[in-house]
Amino acid sequence: MASNYEHVLAACIKPLCKPWSTPALTDKKSTSAALFDEFNRRIESKEVVIGVMGLGYVGLPLVLSYANHGVRVIGFDVDQKKIDSLLEGKSYIQTIASEKVAEVIAGGHLDPTSDIERLREADAILICVPTPLNKYREPDLTYVEETVKSVAPHFRAGQMLSLESTTYPGTSREIILPYIEQAGFTVGEDFFLVYSPEREDPGNQTFDTSTTPKVVGGFEDNSLKIGCGVYELIVEKVVPVSGMETAEAVKLTENIFRAVNIALVNELKVTYEKMGIDVWDVIEAAKTKPFGYMPFYPGPGLGGHCIPIDPFYLTWKAREFGVSTRFIELSGEINNSMPGYVIGKLGEALDKKLRKGFNGARILLVGLAYKKNVDDTRESPAFKLLDELLARGADVDYLDPYVPVIPPIRKYPELADRKSVNIDSVAGLKFDAALICTDHDNIDYQKLVDSVPVTVDTRNATKSVKDNRDRIVKA
């Protein structure tokens, strides 16, 4: 059966066969207007079909949001295990309940698949794939390019394409657009191109996909209008900006802001420690000022898919324009040095309190997730710490109720399949020290401190511990 778009195209192109038809340019304008009007009609009637490519920490909340708003959504992923899990009504992300998945599957609004040919069914295609760094700390757009290559052969007139993955300004125009143009389409005439950065925060109890404002930048006005309409179906506030490059820069700016400020408090932590001042006490007092200050907190290093990576997308792109981003580079150096600082503090504590070195020491690493109360381990500094401790000859176990088994990790494949210990077994396992990397709320920190001779705390997780505080070392 022909789609509405095929009928629209046929109606617009048919007059070309008549001797009194208008010139080709006018027909192109008519076709473009018809496609634009049809897309808007489908948005307004909620007949629009959304295709989301990549069903991870960004893509899965996105498809659930559309499905919960009564919009049909097709979820694509190359990982058949994810597809099978969703079809069974099961979630593979701890912060997303399986009940939510089962509800939209049963309601017929979510259709998970690994069949790329079904892209033609979607009106809007939203790309949510990883954008990591390579070993030289340069942007690795392999996932984006491979995804767009797979999209191009199945693309049809009248579709909208949106990249949500964080990247440098110019990616949509320089990488995405050429693949679709080579497939025979013209942006603004027979397809629409936008960039709208994801703003997911796993485990955030205040803001979710629908309540977090959505920035949208379009290639031209029609793309922007279509993009805003697509996202207004699920988001309370859409923020249109002047272009795709602006939208790409917005996401980088947000995460660079966080990275730089975290680097600042990490540097203050080291400085104040030398002076005998607890940086956590300083921050708690400073944040009582109702203006001119925003609290950021130190830690063992940066984690998550955004903050450790995104700043380097801009530093790389800036070099193309002859700009040296020294402030960003310096913050990266400081944050990347934190795991080494923490290892040093742990080594000092072992030597001072137990007269032991790392070789043969029994160490419990507490928390593998990159942030509290989630199962997300992407770019977690805990893995670097675990790897370094093993390299120094330590005997290391870990405790994380959100990560019972270490998943496959590209950078540290040898760590996969290790299993978490239980807090109740810690005392019997005779650890020399515990190193707190993530401050999950469901860990009994008093029991932890009571169970080991030394606890090195990088998150101020032990702030409420009453007994045996002489065993605690801040790092």
Write the layout of secondary structure elements.
Layout: H1 4-13, H2 24-44, E1 49-53, H3 59-68, E2 72-76, H4 80-87, H5 98-106, E3 110-113, E4 124-127, H6 142-151, E5 159-163, H7 171-182, E6 191-195, E7 214-218, H8 221-232, E8 238-240, H9 244-274, H10 279-286, H11 310-320, H12 326-354, E9 362-366, H13 381-391, E10 395-399, E11 433-436, H14 445-451, E12 454-457, E13 472-474
Parallel strand pairs: 1-2, 1-4, 2-3, 4-5, 5-6, 7-8, 9-10, 9-11, 11-12, 12-13
Antiparallel strand pairs: 6-7
Order of helices and strands: HHEHEHHEEHEHEEHEHHHHEHEEHEE
Major beta sheet, strand line-up: 3-2-1-4-5-6-7-8
How many structural domains in the coordinates? 2
Structural class: alpha/beta
What does this molecule look like?
With 475 residues, the protein is of the alpha/beta class. The protein has two domains: 4-242, Rossmann fold, CATH 3.40.50; 338-474, Rossmann fold (3-Layer(aba) Sandwich), CATH 3.40.50.720. 40% of the residues lie in helices and 12% in strands. The protein has helices at 4-13, 24-44, 59-68, 80-87, 98-106, 142-151, 171-182, 221-232, 244-274, 279-286, 310-320, 326-354, 381-391, 445-451; strands at 49-53, 72-76, 110-113, 124-127, 159-163, 191-195, 214-218, 238-240, 362-366, 395-399, 433-436, 454-457, 472-474. An eight-stranded mixed sheet has the order 3-2-1-4-5-6-7-8, with helices on both faces. Strands 10-9-11-12-13 form a five-stranded parallel sheet, with helices on one face. Strand 7 (214-218), helix 8 and strand 8 form a beta-alpha-beta unit. The longest helix is centred in the middle third of the chain and has 31 residues, at 244-274. The chain starts with a helix and ends with a strand.
